[in-house]
From TrEMBL:
This is Uncharacterized protein. Keywords: Membrane, Transmembrane, Transmembrane helix. Residues 1-45 are annotated as: Disordered. The lineage of its organism: Bacteria, Bacillati, Actinomycetota, Actinomycetes, Micromonosporales. Coiled coil: none annotated.
Amino acid sequence: MTSQLDQDSPDQDPSAQDPAPAATRVADGAPPAVGRASGAARRPRSAPTLGRRLLLTAAGLAGAWLAAVALHAARADWLLLVLVVVATAVVLDRAGTLMDRLVLSLITLAGTTCLAGLLFSVWPWHLHPVALGGTALTVVVLLWGVRGRAPSLPRPRRSDLLVAVPAGGFAALLGIPYLVRALPDRFGMLVLGEDLHRHFMVMDSMRRAGGYLFFTPESAVTAQWVMHTDRTYPAGAHMVGAVLDNFLTSTTVPGDATAAYSRFLGYDILAYSMLGLVMIWGARRLAGPSARIFTFWPVAGLICGYLLFGDLFDGWRYGFAPQVVGMTYLVFIMVLAARPLPSTRQQIVALSAAVLGVAFTYYLLLPLAAVPLLLYGWTYRRRLLRHWPVLLTAGVVTVAVAPIPRMKNASDHSWALLVQQFGIRTVPLGHAAVLLALFVLALACARRWSPMLRSVTASVATVVGATAALAAVQLYLIGTLAYFFDKMMYCVIVTALVAAGAATPLLGRLKLGVDGRRRMAVIATACVAAVAAVTGGLEVRPGVATANSGWVNDYLRRNPAGVVAAHLAYRVHRYTPNDDRALIVHTRHRVDTITMQLLCSLRRDRTTDWFTFIWLRYNRTPDEYVESIVASRNDRQYRVVTDDDAILDRMRRLAAERPDLRLDVVDERTLPGGSRSTVRP
């Protein structure tokens, strides 16, 4: 079977066509035929009368708010969140298969939450789950009432398993090792850099403030826990996390910091799993009808292999969660621009939500989304103009709101950051070269240059071109490739992996005889070879070494430095008094920086800890500690926790010589728990 890209007639104008496959092609405004197990279409249901629709809508509105209040009273708001996701999937009745509806529901809700966060920040209920869930269900019920269609979901198909199995396996490989670990070990699995702790402080403070922090940048709620430059950071991912946390905990009160941080790391894993789901779904959608187990799962395996063993895995663990979420939206835009939905109205709404998600989460990716969107708009301009009211409304809202995060953040983060050096694992250029070669091979074997293929090629070329331009600017200004070049390389590899879905028709044309085991062996060998090439550390830059820890070495077997730092921070947090003293932690394990960062998050209610971390980032000598403590403000008191005998001796002598400092000195080796805590949440 050929792919959909080979079925379009070259004489027809794509802007006048329905991009759906012929078997499901329907006119806009009519419900699609949903296949039964045998593939037969269901008979269309007659629309209810106006009076009956009004009655059902009123009953639905009452039921929505009753469900929201009742579930909150039972502390089961997470069920309300599930209901909202399912109801949104029902409204998106032209999205295709059940997996299509699920992905579109999740992305549309996430992007809409970023936009609605502006309203949530100023209305009196802020992020309360009853207000949010009731409002979301109200919108869904009103849409049902206006359209007059009976709610329904398609039955699961075998094609859904092509996405569900690899995406579910990928999520399980991330989630199960985390869930079975004790609490300090959980922290050690993901504690690699500073960014993750700062993102937690932003999300946690947004729960306290009830919305975006740039609405109250100098309030007591935010100033105690969040650095000034982080108050204006694009916080779309943090808004989604704060809303999710309120639904799961059935409260707007942050509560215990240890439990809150554990949940936050769970949301971080969920974000990375969502990237895997959208990438696999996108590759499957680009593959079209030619996708089968033997032809598509090698592509899905390549995606999962890179996400688990490639450089992005370490980048994610270093705290690049906003970029991970931003790339999820970018992949979604790229795929829908190439293979639009049958319903133009739903296509416009979904793309607008994704664009707003990029703007509020990682606005550096907005230019990368512009080219596929413009190409889609030109290719399907006639269909879009037939729905000009929806197009105009979505366009005005998107254009008016999308610049807000950058406008709020401009004074704290200038464009000069693009050429500055920061700590990051170098991304081997060979990874992108292998994937781009695979995509070029698919282009060469394509039977004709279809609109879908043009759109995907334009998306990949845009990302590659933007990355090359940034590299040229960095080489010209600072003489070397810097931080944001490697971050852009993540985008190159991710888009190339999704575009590899276009190679599925090529695999489907392989002629290996009637023996299915031979075909499986050849495809499996090719898949393993591609994964090895992408994850094996190919590097073409001279003098650049890469160190990729991957899923097995540090995530499954435990990251030694992270575990030591996490256990130390957990023990200090739990077994030292939770008073107003600023903590200084010095250990011979050389993980002071990670330990202090984690302590800043766990002891978020002690304002002095964060400021202590700012000036105490690296190890100091005993005399330097003395100088810092003595020279500090008179109203600040300190507690020094260390296992270094020289530091202990000097701090104890200082405490005896200067009782006015009220210095508390603690030998870390005397704290309960030892090096391995078994406390579970």
